[in-house]
From TrEMBL:
PROSITE patterns: JMJC. Residues 107-271 form the JmjC domain. May play a role in cellular stress response. This is HSPB1-associated protein 1 homolog isoform X1. It is found in: Cytoplasm. PANTHER family: HSPB1-ASSOCIATED PROTEIN 1 (PTHR12461:SF43), HYPOXIA-INDUCIBLE FACTOR 1 ALPHA INHIBITOR-RELATED (PTHR12461). InterPro entries: Cupin_8, JmjC_dom. Keywords: Cytoplasm. One of its GO terms (cellular component) is cytoplasm. The keyword Transcription regulation does not apply. It comes from the Eukaryota.
Length: 498
């Protein structure tokens, strides 16, 4: 380990300190030199996996105004060799079940594949992933997932309920569109389709329907194109839309557990109980495919209530252990405890010292992913009043190079602003697709009244009701009430989606 750390820009202790202080996405450079996993190209993985069948999700290419959720995709079980032949334009029998899908019309994605399952017969592969260099002793491939896709393969915009995320790009490039938790209301959260621990956005990030989702104009996008060898840190509860931008991409990630996940599990248990109870009830509009394919089956209400009670008990036990630790703690030992990958508590004295001032060492080896609009010179010169007028932040598409983080250059490319001020009016910048804010001189759309009338007479559906009942703000409060009532906790640190 010492030899490995000597060639890294940050030691394991420094990396842990950085991770404990980061408040926004950042890219670690030159931290994975020597990791065997960097040789996990699709070609090499095909040789390792042989005849093992992998489930691929296929989606039709093309512009949409709504996200393409997994419930709307097709699926095939195929060898990785079939996948590679398909990307090369081969025909039957080389492409196997991919023969039913045109490569020109579809993208394919083997997403969220547990490495522990893929290589259960080759456990030595687990050692190729070395999260121990980031200070997570014992964490490797067994605690990671694998993602293999073609150009255009994407994950709908969502946030993860638990922990934070470390993502290593192995082959090709992926573009990440990230939004802070404070922008949750602008992302129009939904739990339909339902997937445990995933809160989806109703907005198609690349082609937003601003008439239906006008507040998305004010969402603050942090965009980065991750390249091979780089590791992206995705903070807790940051929204993200991810898309492959090269013919073949491979990435590996690991979700890092946090102590507050105990509260989040209560919230998730409540959400599941409500979703299953309401969506399982007979109704004229309850005919949609609401359960994500990642979920095995619809649990009974009795099972879901058991899950709620187990989550509350687990939280209570954790609080009891914490109280006991405080009572028996040596006054000289005030350092917090931290879990390793096997969930064993280990002292963290040498890793995190909150009492010591710390400045995050941004530079060539650690690059912050900034909000695209806030970084532009135009935005920096604007007054708060100007910013209120500049309502559209997502009308313009970013070029690939503008959003890339390159290991050869740390300079930020100033993006073209989506909207500029001109003689007191809002106008779209040259060459950009007009947005709703620019439809008329006074910044209002001619269709506003028509849209209002449509909304006023629209029928409230079951999913509309669930979007309100399961809104993150509501679930947070329900979780607090449950824990106050059943554990005696007051104003718990519930999962926050400001």
């Amino acid at each position: 380990m010492a030899a490995s750390n000597s060639i890294k820009p940050f030691s394991t202790e420094e990396t842990q300190m950085i991770l404990s202080h980061l408040q926004q996405p950042a890219v670690f450079m030159n931290m994975t030199c020597g990791w065997p996993v960097l040789h996990w190209t699709a070609e090499n993985l095909s040789g390792c996996l042989g005849d093992k069948l992998i489930r691929f999700r296929l989606g039709r290419k093309g512009k949409m105004l709504t996200p393409l959720f997994e419930t709307q995709c097709s699926f095939v079980e195929a060898k990785l060799a079939h996948f590679l032949s398909w990307t090369r334009g081969h025909s039957r029998p080389d492409v196997g079940p991919f023969s039913e899908f045109s490569y020109a019309e579809y993208w394919a994605y083997a997403d969220y594949k547990y490495i522990a399952n893929l290589f259960q017969d080759q456990p030595s592969m687990f050692k190729d992933v070395k999260w121990s260099d980031f200070g997570f002793e014992g964490r490797g491939g067994r605690e990671s997932t694998l993602w293999i896709g073609t150009e255009g393969a994407n994950t709908p915009c969502h946030l993860d309920s638990y922990g934070y995320n470390l993502v290593l790009q192995v082959q090709g490039r992926k573009r990440w569109h990230l939004f802070p938790p404070e922008d949750t209301s602008k992302l129009y959260p939904t739990r339909i389709p339902y997937e445990e621990s995933s809160v989806f956005s109703r907005v198609d990030v690349l082609h937003p329907d601003l008439r239906s989702f006008p507040d998305f104009q004010r969402a603050r996008a942090h965009i980065v194109t991750l390249q091979p060898g780089q590791v992206l840190y995705v903070p807790r509860h940051w929204w993200h839309y991810v898309e492959s931008v090269d013919p073949i991409t491979v990435s590996v990630n690991s979700w890092i557990e946090l102590a507050v996940d105990d509260v989040a599990r209560v919230s998730e248990a409540v959400t599941k109980a409500v979703v299953c109870a309401i969506k399982s009830a007979p109704s004229d509009d309850n005919t949609d495919n609401w359960l994500n394919p990642t979920e095995e089956a619809v649990a009974s209400h009795n099972e879901n209530m058991q899950y709620v009670n187990l989550a509350i008990r687990a939280y209570a036990e954790r609080q009891k252990d914490l109280c006991y630790s405080k009572l028996t703690q040596d006054p000289k030992d005030t350092c917090p405890a931290k879990q390793d990958s096997s969930r064993q508590i280990r002292k963290n004295c040498d890793l995190i010292r909150d009492s010591v001032p710390f400045s995050i060492p941004f530079g060539p080896n650690l690059i912050s992913v900034h909000c695209q609009q806030e970084d532009s010179p135009e935005m920096k010169e604007m007054t708060p009043k100007d910013l209120e007028v500049k309502s559209s932040r997502y009308c313009a598409g970013k070029s690939q190079e503008d959003c890339s983080v390159s290991s050869n250059a740390v300079q930020k490319t100033e993006p073209l602003s989506a909207v500029r001020l001109c003689q007191g009016k809002r106008e779209c910048s040259p060459g950009l697709t007009p947005c709703r804010a620019c439809d008329s001189a006074d910044g209002t759309s001619e269709n506003n009244s028509e849209h209002y009338e449509e909304s006023r007479h629209a029928t409230v559906t079951t999913n509309d009701l669930l979007d309100c009942l399961l809104h993150p703000d509501i679930i947070i409060r329900v979780t607090e009430l449950l824990l106050e009532r059943h554990t005696g906790s007051h104003r718990t640190t519930a999962p926050s989606y400001p």
